[in-house]
Amino acid sequence: MTTFSDRERAFENKFAHDAEMQFKAVARRNKRVGVWAAGLLGKTGAEADAYGLELVRIDFEEPGPENVIRKLVADLGGRADEATIRARMDELLAQAKVELYDES
User: Fold this and answer.
1) Alpha-carbon dihedral of residues 69, 44, 97, 28, nearest 10 degrees?
2) Exposure letters 41-61 (e unless 16+ CB within 10 A, then b)
3) What is the pLDDT of residues 27-63, one digit of tens each?
4) pLDDT at residue 104, rounded to an integer
5) From CA 76, how far away is CA 67, in angstroms rounded?
6) What is the pTM of this model?
7) Structure confidence by residue, pLDDT tens digits, 3-17
8) Cβ atoms of 72 and 33 closer than 8 Å
9) Mean model confidence pLDDT for the chain
10) In the predicted model, what is the mean pLDDT of residues 61-84?
C-alpha cells in the first residue's frame, strides 16, 4: 500500500512541477515577445520592459495565447502579421523551456 501511495504522490508532484514550469515558460515567452514587439514599435529600455510585463498580465485574463495575439496584432498594425507573431511566440516559448530546464 505504501508503494502505491508513494507512486501517487510522486505523480502528483511531477504534475505540479510540470504545470509550474509551463506557467513560467509562458510568462517568460510573453515578456520576451512583448519586448520584441516593443522594439518594432520603437520602444526601448524601461518602456519595452513595461510593455512585456503588460503582455504577461493580460495573459491572465483568458486561457490560451489568443488575447496576447489579438493585442499584438492590434498594437503592431502592419509591422507584423498574425502568422509572424505566432511563429515568434512559438520560437520564444521553445527558448524559454530550454532555459528553464537548464536552470533547474
Assistant:
1) -70
2) eebeeeebeebbebbbeebee
3) 999 999 999 999 999 999 999 999 999 999 999 998 8
4) 80
5) 14
6) 0.87
7) 878 888 888 989 899
8) yes
9) 93
10) 94
Phi-psi region of 45 (alpha: psi -120 to 50; beta: other; left: phi over 0): left
CB distance 57 to 81 below 8 Å? no
* 2-103 CATH fold: Major Prion Protein (1.10.790)
Cβ atoms 52, 32 nearer than 8 A: yes
Length of the chain: 104
* Calpha distance 79→70 (Å, rounded): 14
Quick check: 28 and 96 in contact, CB under 8 A?
A: yes
Q: Which residue has the cell 511563429?
A: 87
**Amino acid in the structure at residue 62:** E
For residue 104, give the DSSP letter.
Answer: -
